[in-house]
Amino acid sequence: GEALAVSARVAPLGSRLVLLLVEDLTEARRIEAVRRDFVANVSHELKTPVGALSLLSEAVMDASDDPEAVERFAGRMQIEATRLTNLVQELIDLSRVQNDDPLEDAEPVRVDELVAEAIDRCRHQAGTKQITMAAGGTADLHVWGNRSQLAAALGNLVENAVNYSPARTRVGIAARRVSGSGGDIIEVAVTDQGIGISDKDKERIFERFYRVDPARSRATGGTGLGLAIVKHVAASHGGEVTVWSSEGQGSTFTLRLPEAGLARDRAHQHPALD
Ligand code: ADP
């Protein structure tokens, strides 16, 4: 009688254990599949510009008595080389944000400086499309984190806003402090009047190499890694990135990060005073 009662008690526990084990295996398989997909994607993305470069160099050799054609092919070689450089740089950035602990050399970072840097990075591209960039609310705000990672994250959001917007539109960057449960949070919202993103795509754009329109992304030098980098940076800083969008109207990407409180700044700069 007792043995039966015990086994009746153990049995559900046993099946739960088996279930956990199965879930664990499924999760391990999923991670393995994601890793394999990533390697396949990287290989494919590298092959495309390398293949183009190899064909173009042959074309240059065949056209050696036609200076105009040589110049045309050389121009396209330059575009492919830039594409390759961007891709390798973004892969390095991604692996860095995935592997390094950003809080090891965290410091208070001025939001107005991050925003100015992001705007500078896109000034040329915005200028050619006559896109106006405007920032507000950034004065006296500081976030807590790794300066170069935060700059890369915000830079990617502003760059996307410019890339996925038609000419003569506006990109706005607005920052503010909001009270969160675990202390104050700084919100930086990047708003564009661009093509927007469907609900279905919204769920996937933060995945590595996911693009709504691969041809359009490539045409602007996109690698499909930008938002994956932003998401990693936000998460490793204890923050998050969210998107609001309406197709054909525009998008707002909001980065939420922990504030670098003044008290913490002071403790950091003058530990002896505390
Ligand atoms: P990419 O290098 O292609 O820009 P991202 O990871 O930065 O890669 O973005 C992934 C995809 O999300 C883009 O290819 C684009 O389809 C979409 N996307 C990102 N930002 C915007 C935006 N502001 N407006 C519309 N679509 C966007």
From TrEMBL:
Residues 41-261 form the Histidine kinase domain. Keywords: ATP-binding, Cell membrane, Kinase, Membrane, Nucleotide-binding, Phosphoprotein, Transferase, Transmembrane, Transmembrane helix, Two-component regulatory system. It is an enzyme of class 2 (transferase). It is found in: Cell membrane. Signal peptide: none annotated. It comes from Streptomyces spinoverrucosus. It catalyses: ATP + protein L-histidine = ADP + protein N-phospho-L-histidine. Its main location: membrane. One of its GO terms (cellular component) is plasma membrane. This is Sensor-like histidine kinase SenX3. The keyword Cell cycle does not apply. The chain holds residues 122 to 395 of 423 of the full protein.
